[in-house]
Each structure stands twice: as structure tokens, then as C-alpha cells.
Automatic annotation (TrEMBL):
<dbReference type="GO" id="GO:0008168">
    <property type="term" value="F:methyltransferase activity"/>
</dbReference>
<protein>
    <submittedName>
        <fullName>Class I SAM-dependent methyltransferase</fullName>
    </submittedName>
</protein>
<dbReference type="Pfam" id="PF13649">
    <property type="entry name" value="Methyltransf_25"/>
</dbReference>
<keyword id="KW-0808">Transferase</keyword>
<dbReference type="GO" id="GO:0032259">
    <property type="term" value="P:methylation"/>
</dbReference>
<feature type="domain" description="Methyltransferase">
    <location>
        <begin position="64"/>
        <end position="158"/>
    </location>
</feature>
<dbReference type="InterPro" id="IPR029063">
    <property type="entry name" value="SAM-dependent_MTases_sf"/>
</dbReference>
<keyword id="KW-0489">Methyltransferase</keyword>
<dbReference type="InterPro" id="IPR041698">
    <property type="entry name" value="Methyltransf_25"/>
</dbReference>
Amino acid sequence: MRESSSAAASKLPDYLRDTYTWAYLDHRTVPWLDSPVVVSAILWGNASRLMNRAVAEFEPGQRVLQAAAVYGDFSQRLARRLGDSGQLTVLDVAPIQIANTRRKLAGWPHASAHVADLAEPVGEVFNAVCCFFLLHEVPSHARRLIVSNLLDAVEPGGRIVFVDYHQPRWWHPMRPVMAMVFRYLEPFANSLLADSIDRLVPECAAFEWHKETYFGGLYQKVVGVRRSA
Ligand SMILES: C[S@@+](CC[C@H](N)C(=O)[O-])C[C@H]1O[C@@H](n2cnc3c(N)ncnc32)[C@H](O)[C@@H]1O
């Protein structure tokens, strides 16, 4: 599963290179986009609330996989929640993002970050998996592969937590703005909004699902618990 940064650098997915170089692969923009003010603004002031809702799904002492790097202090919050007896593993396909995550997790010896493409099998099983705002940034085919691989990485009785965009209600004042954002900056988001995460792939059938929406439906948290037997 894990490989050296130089080997992985040449294997960045086309969609990431073509669409999101400015957001995730450019040394000039990464520090700026990683700042708390920008993270909060991008989620219309909801970043802290959404991060707290995700992190609260995990228990101290668990071994948790964080699927892809997240800007701001999300990984530190998760590491703090899991505590010294827990273990946090962050996997991301972009070496620059792994370097940035390692820097942020330097004070957390029970947390580590590695280069890996989540469209390929994870190769390990965890107590739980967290996927925060990744799915809207990948095309449908890659999204299905990623969800399938993440579900396979959840142990029996374990849980998977997705937090991502959702179709806002018809009256939402930000709906026209978000339509423009999705059209020009997030071209794969509409295909996520048209789908139900809990039915994306056949492996979903092995889980019990629960969904909550926030901020007029613009955001969703979808939690699946793998049946034990
Ligand atoms: C988690 S998502 C978006 C998070 C959100 N916008 C934020 O940071 O607040 C962005 C990350 O997903 C990573 N990513 C995209 N496709 C991936 C894949 N197939 N495997 C692993 N990481 C991937 C990118 O490299 C990037 O670091």
C-alpha cells in the first residue's frame, strides 16, 4: 500500500492534476488554503461544526484511517480525540499534502501520514474510517473505487464516516452561489449530489446507515456501521 514519495509523485490521478493543481499541488497556495480563516470561509463558517460532528463519531483508543489530507486542524482534532492509546493513519495521493500533514501532526506520535492512492485497495483493516470532503472532488468512477476500498478497510462492527456536500434545499440563499462554485471550481460535485453515498457501491449493503444534513441541506454526514456477522 505505502510507497515512496518520489515513486508516487509520478502517479497523481489525472483529475487531480487537471482540476485541482491550484488547490492541492502548488507550494504557493497550500499554506494559504491551509489557514483557519480560509478553511472557515470556504465552508461558510461551518468548518468547526462539521469537523466536530465528524470527530465525535470516533472513540479514544481506536485505530482510524483518515482518507485524504484535510486543510486546517482536522487531523489534529482527530488525533486528540483518539488519544495516546489510539492510532491515526492519514493516506493521501499527493506527496505535498502528506508533507504538510506530517508537519501538522509532528506533536502526535500516535499519528502518521503516508502517500497512497485510495482508488487502490488500502491493504489494512481499521476500527473506523473517516472521509471528510473527498468524494465531491473525484469523478464518479474513482469515487466508486474509493468508497469500495474504504468500506473494505472497516472491520466488522466498525464504522465509516463521510462528511461532504449535499443538495441544498430549494430556498437556500447560497444555492445559486454554490451552483457557480460547482460549475467552475468543483466539476465533480454535482455527480455526488445526484447520488446517495449509502448506495454508491454493492459493498454498502453490508452496513447500517444513518444520515444527517446541516446548514439548509448543503452538507451531509453519512455514517455506516458494518454488521458484525
Ligand atoms: C480531502 S479532499 C478535500 C478536503 C477539503 N477541501 C479540505 O481540505 O478542507 C483533498 C485531498 O484529497 C486528495 N486526493 C484526491 N484523490 C485522491 C486519491 N485517489 N487518493 C488519495 N488522496 C486523494 C488530494 O490530494 C487532496 O489532498
